[in-house]
Amino acid sequence: MHSTETLWSNGTSCPAASADGGCADDQIAGDGYTCRFEQGARPESLILNMGPQHPSTHGVLRVLLELDGEYIVRAEPVLGYLHRMHEKMAEVKTPAQFMPNMGRVDYLHALAWNWAYVGAVEKLAGIEIPERAEYLRVITCELNRISSHLLWWGAYLLDLGAFTPIMYAFDDREMLLDLLQLMTGSRLTYSSFRFGGVYTDASPAFVQGVRQFIPHLRSRLPMYTALVTENIILRRRIEEVGVIPQDMVTRYGASGPVARGSGIAYDVRRAEPYSVYDRFDYEIPVRHEECSMARYMVRMAEIEQSLRIIEQAIESLPDGEHMHPKAPKPSFKLPAGESYFAVEGARGKIGVWIASDGGKTPYRVKLRAPGFSNLALFAECARGTLLADAVAILGSLDMVIPEIDR
Amino acid sequence: MNATISFDSVLHVVLALVGVAVFVGLNGLLLVYAERKVAGFIQRRPGPYEVGPQGILQAVADALKLIGKQLVRPDRADPLLFWMAPVLAFFPVLLLFLPIPFSPLLTGWDVNLGLLLILAFAGFNVLALLLAGWGSNNKYGLLGAARAVAQSVAYEIPLLLAVLAIAFQEGTLSLTAIVGGQGGMPWQWNIVVQPLAFLIFFVSALGETNRAPFDLPEAESELTAGFHTEYSGMGFGMFFLAEYANMIVACSVCTVLFLGGWKGPFLDGAWWFLAKVYGLLLSMMWFRWTYPRVRFDQLLNLNWRWLLPLGVLNLLATAFVMKL
Amino acid sequence: MTPETAYVTPDVLLAPLDPAYLADETPARTGLRWSAFLSADALPRAATLLLQAGWHLEDICGLDVREGLMAVYHFDRMTSPGRLAIRVLMDRAAPVLPSIADIHQGAEWHERETADFYGIAFTGNPNPAPLLLPEGMQGHPLLKGEAARAPLAALLAVPGREDTVLRKAEGFTLLDPAEDAKPAKPAKARAAATEEGADNA
């Protein structure tokens, strides 16, 4: 093993912080991050430590801000407050044992993570999936995407100071959770995908419920538009705020609605088609304004497109098994080799890379979280904006901290 | 009004102050309950439900909790400023109620410069918010205080312009006289003659009282709680009570200036006055639970670019018409 | 972004950098479209070329194998997608890589994360503080103990890959089936061995 003294990745120790991570300069209160951040500040500016407990950093993100009045001179997100080392757990658990973890990486779109991991394992082990299970995966995953977008919508408006929309969003989301409960047995941290199928078959009640839910939500969306989207205060708050040009998207590897709000029609469901998505007729919503409003509009349009997919899938749901008869037992051994599987989550491209040496547990599992890359561009995007804009930008990136910290 | 100060008039004012304190306290409880019920109604949920029938005692329980809590001061905060702020926020507000004519009989102190007195003492609120933010030794508090000062100072001007337009028209600064100049029927109220002044006054009043969508000094999602971040217990309770008291004053003055005060189509009296005030208060709550918050530069732009020029134009037009 | 007409496949793009190994992959089998082995020195140049050609960095994965420490850079493209894995092997005694955070800004966090988990030093990273792990923490959790390390050839064993190799330098033996490639140890023993390794860090 190499040097035990180095604390930093460039092999040096921190110039300003003491060895335990605290601040060597007793004039500055705070830890090593605050300490280093303050050293780069101009003498007249104000350093504001936003989070990890702050109403609009959703969960436990911490952002260090250097302010000139209310203008942001510099921003630095500090991560790690919700780090659970999922990648280490993946190395000591069998794939079946690791599945519950996949419900807890991004708790708002848990089924997409389910799918990414299951997909990587199936690809590596050559496991087949019955057609009915593919359809059920599409339906539940899209339902989950809608519930994630609805929650984002409510929480984003809460960030912008509108207290009421989240109650309406939760009203609709509750119906989704009831439906997903029928299929997965849980309401938030789903882990219902299995290697070679899904945990349970669709009951008539589920199919009926989904059929009723589609027109219900469609009837609600115009109200959301009239009540919130067209509100002049909202538009002034987020139009032309948080502009993310296309080259910034590329440099940071951002994806999902962040990329599509900047005019890049990139969606893993189209770019790397998986499952049966190629059988459905739907659009990839793209906006070219590059601002927070564009990302807002993309997500609202995605709710409608997900409804379209679900509608087609539920009507053409084939008969058959929900688990492949040759699906492996939970104690199966992964063959040696590597596989990368990407799916489109509510926040962007979710990737799982598995490298296996043929043992019972994977040798290495890498979880590629879309929020990680999306949040990375915040520092550049927020420079020169107002404090209130920073909140609007953070919200428009739709971050889920447990996914970013993993 | 007699210029000499007699024992009777002093006693009258003291009694009025006690009455006002009771009125403000009870109203605080009532408005907290009303606000939460209104919020519940708008958000399609029951609101307070458990304490007492229909949760009617919820506000009492909240008040008892606030009173019972330990007073905590941050270690490096300035004790004098820190504790002075909530006192300064709450007590001057009581004075504002003195000249308000609830009805011809129910007026604390019918002073002929009543409007001036209200505008003068309302200025104390800014000072209190500034001291609270500054004295807390907290960066969110400081930002909140800076916002509060900029906002209050800015919105005082169009508010004053709107008030002046009415004062010009009525030729008096006495609130009783202003009500006297209006009739009982809605079309005899000043709002018909001065709709622009009413709009300017009401929007500025939202800004002055830090109510949504102009609640920037305590913008929760940006500044956690702004100027009162470090206050808990009754320190916070005083600010809270002061906010509601200020709302009542703003709506009362609005009622006097534009909505005919205690006069109604029939049976003139304090009930008309209160009905109009609570109507305005309800609309303030309605705004709060409906709109997102504006941004700080937009807030100031709205004031300097629209309210202020419009207020000046309105005042000039009023003066011109009065001269004719 | 470069217009579609300028699209050059990475095998042509990376050719001037003289990759030690470059192969076509089957996406249906591995999820990759190309894979390459590069030297650490060639990494910034490769990152620049890829960014100019419209590629973005997906992630950086560390890997602890018998031959040393490895970093895998996954790149993808928004238009005409296809995943490219660039693998760089380092000496375990001095795991150092040049940072590409000045080219792909998104790499800053990926590099810091890899530094946290594997102790790989990225020279030139603008903010090389720990990202996910606490400051002052000793050890790197994903390093494996001596006994638990697998040979690279076992991990990247893809049947039929030999047939699609586009370039292979003289003396490149990393992917040749190792003589002593033992089947993996039981999970329990391996976990214990890994923990031991982390403690020793």
UniProtKB/TrEMBL annotation, chain A:
Pfam families (alphabetical): Complex1_49kDa
Transport found in the keyword field: yes
Main location: membrane
SUPFAM superfamilies: HydB/Nqo4-like (SSF56762)
InterPro entries: NADH_Q_OxRdtase_suD (IPR001135), NDH1_su_D/H (IPR022885), NiFe-Hase_large (IPR029014)
Residues of the NADH-quinone oxidoreductase subunit D domain: 159-325, 329-406
Top enzyme category: translocase
Membrane topology classification: Peripheral membrane protein
Transmembrane residue ranges: none
Highest taxon of the lineage: Bacteria
GO function terms (MF aspect): oxidoreductase activity
Reaction equations catalysed: a quinone + NADH + 5 H(+)(in) = a quinol + NAD(+) + 4 H(+)(out)
Subcellular location: Cell membrane
Record EC number: 7.1.1.-
HAMAP family per the UniProt record, alphabetical: NDH1_NuoD (MF_01358)
Family designation: Belongs to the complex I 49 kDa subunit family.
Role, per record: NDH-1 shuttles electrons from NADH, via FMN and iron-sulfur (Fe-S) centers, to quinones in the respiratory chain. The immediate electron acceptor for the enzyme in this species is believed to be ubiquinone. Couples the redox reaction to proton translocation (for every two electrons transferred, four hydrogen ions are translocated across the cytoplasmic membrane), and thus conserves the redox energy in a proton gradient.
Subunit: NDH-1 is composed of 14 different subunits. Subunits NuoB, C, D, E, F, and G constitute the peripheral sector of the complex.
Annotated protein name in UniProt: NADH-quinone oxidoreductase subunit D
TrEMBL record, chain B:
Superkingdom per UniProt: Bacteria
Single GO term (MF): oxidoreductase activity
Topological relation to the membrane, as annotated: Multi-pass membrane protein
Listed transmembrane segments: 12-34, 80-102, 114-136, 148-167, 187-206, 244-264, 270-291, 303-322
Catalytic activity annotation: a quinone + NADH + 5 H(+)(in) = a quinol + NAD(+) + 4 H(+)(out)
Catalytic activity, EC: 7.1.1.-
UniProt subcellular location: Cell membrane; Membrane
Keyword flag Transferase: no
Enzyme class at the top of the EC tree: translocase
Alphabetic keyword roster: Cell membrane, Membrane, NAD, Oxidoreductase, Quinone, Translocase, Transmembrane, Transmembrane helix, Ubiquinone
Subunit field text: NDH-1 is composed of 14 different subunits. Subunits NuoA, H, J, K, L, M, N constitute the membrane sector of the complex.
Function: NDH-1 shuttles electrons from NADH, via FMN and iron-sulfur (Fe-S) centers, to quinones in the respiratory chain. The immediate electron acceptor for the enzyme in this species is believed to be ubiquinone. Couples the redox reaction to proton translocation (for every two electrons transferred, four hydrogen ions are translocated across the cytoplasmic membrane), and thus conserves the redox energy in a proton gradient. This subunit may bind ubiquinone.
Family under the similarity heading: Belongs to the complex I subunit 1 family.
The protein's name in its UniProt record: NADH-quinone oxidoreductase subunit H
Phylogenetic classification of the source organism: Bacteria, Pseudomonadati, Thermodesulfobacteriota, Desulfovibrionia, Desulfovibrionales
Gene: nuoH
Automatic annotation (TrEMBL), chain C:
Gene3D superfamilies given in the database record: NADH:ubiquinone oxidoreductase, 30kDa subunit
Composition skew (Low complexity), residue ranges: 184-195
Classification via Pfam families: Complex1_30kDa
NADH:ubiquinone oxidoreductase 30kDa subunit domain sequence ranges: 40-145
Taxonomic superkingdom: Bacteria
Ranges for region Disordered: 177-201
InterPro entries in alphabetical order: NADH_quin_OxRdtase_su_C/D-like, NADH_UbQ_OxRdtase_30kDa_su
Family: Belongs to the complex I 30 kDa subunit family.
PANTHER family attached to this UniProt entry: NADH DEHYDROGENASE [UBIQUINONE] IRON-SULFUR PROTEIN 3, MITOCHONDRIAL (PTHR10884:SF14), NADH DEHYDROGENASE UBIQUINONE IRON-SULFUR PROTEIN 3 (PTHR10884)
Protein name in UniProt: NADH-quinone oxidoreductase subunit C
Organism: Nitratidesulfovibrio oxamicus
